[in-house]
Design brief:
Layout: E1 25-28, E2 34-42, H1 49-65, E3 74-82, H2 87-107, E4 112-120, E5 124-133, E6 149-152, H3 158-170, H4 173-180, H5 186-201, H6 205-209, E7 218-221, H7 226-236, E8 242-252, H8 255-261, E9 280-284, H9 286-300, E10 305-312, E11 318-329
Parallel strand pairs: 3-4, 8-11
Antiparallel strand pairs: 1-2, 2-5, 3-5, 6-9, 6-10, 7-9, 8-10
Helix pairs in contact: 1-2, 3-5
Length: 333
């Protein structure tokens, strides 16, 4: 639909033919700097309005980090307060959302400098994140090369975890089936949701800031289109005729078990399960990737994985290999 509207002027940096693509608008300013900006928003997926705000900020900032920057100069907040709540509930909920959003921005070393607020049936929070940098301080998103490996910095499975949590809280028929068939225990469901919340609320700041140092060639973040959807978008945007083969899917512990149970097809193992505030997916040489994953784990105390490789492909296809393996990612700490 949008392709018929002639959006953009062909002047975006780091994308094929300067077109609108992937995560951010990357533009050269009149003064010769590079302005990188992005926007996103977040509907309620968690019980805590504070965590909703924090995850919302992490989600917005993630697009910047996917461009290989670790600093954000300022954030504009986009806030929708729920008009259908009682006034005291709306006040508490809105304050907590804003606090969570602001705390994440402060952790990122940036600040909320303005924004817009409306009333809405759903409480929604998001924003616009902007950084100003110089050439060489970010990673253009179209430089993947044949022989690169692909790194992922967070596990998959947030959509599965959030839905199982909701089934459990509401004691739905799907939860009853999971329990009756001994697919997952109450404790495992709680751990799965806790791991998902920790992952969604963790900033990709260090993952982004290390990309230039370790000579990354291209990157994106994994969110609503699922890992395969974003891998395909990334390949479609490359200057070279390359494709991607994914051989490993790191998943939050027990999410793949839920997927394989058939209770609901989230398409997790097909690569299309939506992620919220997911990890960065980065193309780089293998020796650089090994060093990158080690340094990132030393800083974040969370693992990153080599999950695939970039191959020559005139059709620019991304796919999950038939003999792919899954990694059960257990919660740390």
């Amino acid at each position: 639909m949008l392709s018929t509207l002639n959006l953009g002027d062909g002047q975006n940096l780091g994308t094929t033919n300067g077109r609108i693509a992937l995560d951010c608008s990357v533009r050269r300013t009149r003064q010769g700097h590079v302005c990188i900006s992005t926007t996103d928003f977040f509907f309620p997926l968690v019980d805590s309005p504070y965590l909703q705000g924090r995850i919302g900020a992490a989600n917005v900032l993630s697009d910047l980090y996917a461009e290989g920057v670790g600093e954000c100069d300022f954030v504009l907040m986009l806030l929708a307060a729920c008009r259908d709540m009682a006034e005291d509930e709306r006040t508490i909920c809105t304050k907590e959302m804003v606090k969570g959003f602001n705390d994440a921005c402060l952790e990122a070393g940036t600040s909320v400098s303005g924004g817009q607020t409306v009333l809405n049936p759903w409480p929604v929070i998001g924003g616009v994140a902007t950084t100003i940098c110089s050439e060489g301080e970010y990673v253009k998103s179209d430089g993947a090369q044949v022989g690169d490996v692909v790194v992922l910095t967070k596990p998959l499975g947030t959509q599965v975890a959030v839905n199982v949590h909701e089934w459990r809280v509401r004691q739905t028929s799907k939860w009853q089936e999971l329990s009756k068939r001994n697919i997952i225990s109450l404790e495992q469901a709680e751990d799965m949701m806790h791991a998902a919340v920790c992952s969604m609320s963790r900033l990709n700041r260090h993952a982004g800031s290390l990309m230039v140092k370790h000579h990354a060639h291209a990157g994106t973040d994994v969110t609503g289109f699922g890992i395969l959807g974003h891998a395909q978008n990334l390949m479609d945007n490359q200057a070279a005729e390359v494709g991607m083969e994914i051989h490993t899917l790191p998943c939050i512990a027990n999410t793949s078990k839920v997927e394989e149970s058939g209770v609901l097809d989230f398409r997790l193992l097909k690569g299309y399960s939506a992620e919220t505030s997911g990890g960065l997916m980065i193309c780089m040489k293998e020796e650089d990737a090994v060093a990158y994953c080690k340094e990132l784990e030393d800083i974040d105390e969370e693992p990153a994985w080599i999950i695939g490789r970039v191959i020559q492909d005139p059709n620019r296809k991304a796919n999950i290999m038939d003999d792919f393996k899954t990694i059960e990612v257990e919660m740390r700490g």
